[in-house]
């Protein structure tokens, strides 16, 4: 557990210039949360006060905090009548020994991106399917390449800010065209916010996804896609000759949604490591307080709270998790949390 807490310290220090009274306190708290129930976890997290304090120097061997990691890229300009996203990211790999160092855009086998253009903001998450590891394939390579391609293509001249499914399809084709095959599969959810219209567009494949919170209620959610229990839709590139033996869903299978966003809305885009361990009720209780928050440092605190809560509950054998409840509906006994990589991209509409 100490290794995981050290990793939490590194991630949080890199992403923000403030902390719960101190990062040491946050790490100590996380260690005790593993034996708590969901609402006990929530109570402990919400009981901590946000203290914003500039740091003149970083602790030894820790990355320098970067404001650009918290907010949108500073090179993008906005007109006063346009809405936009202020976004932050937090997450944890399931196995810190396998992924000991922080890499931008990745938490274990999960990957993410966020970027901004003159027309739109774009965010995405992808969850590499861990079963490929038994074949000697790193599942994180597939998801990371897909998200990096999405980020790059969002800045192309023909990028359509109302077509995230096209962005996802082009990134997938880019992956297929590599001379050195990138094998594996992943779920993915990509969204764009058109700044002029204020409409959010999303394309989702599998069990990652998004929730939108307004006035203390969930007003929009992406559609989860499952072939059967714990077998989500996924983009895939199988080894040569193994196509018939590998579950593959094309980008055209993505579930699409459109939603008219308003200033003050809170959006969470996350992988199933969050949704399998944290109920919507708990997410609401944490994130309803983030409504109207435009300071990325303060918004980071809420992302950290969700990620820490998901991380702690995932290793709690007594937690009545959403995954446990879903398994029971399929007559499967799967008590406790579900250990997994965790990625949280949290955004506020301003």
TrEMBL record:
Its cofactor is Mg(2+); Mn(2+). The keyword Hydrolase applies. InterPro entries: PPM-type-like_dom_sf, PPM-type_phosphatase-like_dom, PPTC7. Residues 95-349 form the PPM-type phosphatase domain. This is Protein phosphatase. The gene is LOC111598416. Keywords: Hydrolase, Magnesium, Manganese, Metal-binding, Protein phosphatase. It is an enzyme of class 3 (hydrolase). Pfam families: SpoIIE (PF07228). PROSITE patterns: PPM_2 (PS51746). It comes from the Eukaryota. One of its GO terms (cellular component) is mitochondrion. Its EC number is 3.1.3.16. It catalyses: O-phospho-L-threonyl-[protein] + H2O = L-threonyl-[protein] + phosphate; O-phospho-L-seryl-[protein] + H2O = L-seryl-[protein] + phosphate. One of its GO terms (molecular function) is protein serine/threonine phosphatase activity. The keyword Metal-binding applies. It comes from Drosophila hydei (Fruit fly). Belongs to the PP2C family.
